[in-house]
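Hi F.,

I've been meaning to write this up properly since the lab meeting, where we talked about keeping a consistent format for the predictions we share between groups. The idea is simple: the sequence comes first, exactly as it goes in, then the structure tokens exactly as they come out, then a line or two of notes. No screenshots and no reformatting. I'm using this chain as the first example so we have something concrete to point to.
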Amino acid sequence: MSPEQRIEQLEGKVQQAYIVIGVLLAGADRNSPDFESKEGQRALDYFAHEEYDGDFLPFVHPGARR
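Output, unedited:
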């Protein structure tokens, strides 16, 4: 697999993550207040753009402690 193909796959995976996050935030009745919450919108905004933020998580990722 070429680097370009891998990048394309990863971009597709991020797009899928965006959709999954939106569905989970909306809840079963699609009317959950989590969707409109500051945190919910922050998550959707983050996955809607290409920039990486190493400080996105509100905690230190266990893998980063090494």
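Notes:
The CA atoms of residues 19 and 34 lie 15 Å apart.
The chain has three helices and no strands.

If this format works for you, I'll send the rest the same way.

G.
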